[in-house]
Amino acid sequence: MKKVLRKVGGILIPPLAYVLMRIIWITTSKKYHFITPISKVQHVCVCWHGELFMSPQAYRHIHKTQKASAIISQHFDGSLIAGTLNLLQISPLRGSSNKGAKEVLLKAFKRIRNGEEVLITPDGPKGPRHSMSDGAIGIALKSKLPIFVMNYTCNNFWQIKSWDKFVIPKPLSKVDFYLQSVSLEGMKLPVAKKYLTAKMLEHTIGNNEQLA
Q1: Helices (H) then strands (E): counts for the chain
Q2: Considering only CA atoms, which of 179, 211, 159 is closest in space to residue 53?
Q3: Domains contained in the chain, number
Q4: Which of 49, 115, 154, 202 is at 20 to 30 A from 147, Cα to Cα?
């Protein structure tokens, strides 16, 4: 019975989530803050797991035709995210630092060589929230690509009581996107992790903001 419910959920939930995402997107007021120029140069793209509701949509708004893939966990929740991102023309690469890591990294490098951008949530799939795994940094350093950092804040939102404190802006709220291109060139892994973490925390919804 559980397998049947999961199968049905895997079919129904992604399109419903996509419709909800698009409704929220259309009914919010959006402002884009380009901290650095975002050119058409190929990037490795990152956002926090708790910001997945809006950041992939912002990515697709800015890079309307760029081929892109997202590294997504092999858990059931990952399947739902994969199905939803597919509807944004972002292909899934299934695997994570805990399961299928080597295989998914090889696939990621292959996609990059083919000109695609790879999207990663550095604190996914299980956190801790706003922690920095090696994946995005390792891919960026090895491929010698800059990192496209996507964050957003909003003035009125729901926040789910999950490990990532998942944020969903309310209709008619104001959403501010903060976008920047970050180079890790010449950095060692520990320094790069600290640097990228700081950059990603510059503009994000923190614990000190009031919950809706």
Answers
A1: 6, 9
A2: 159
A3: 1
A4: 154
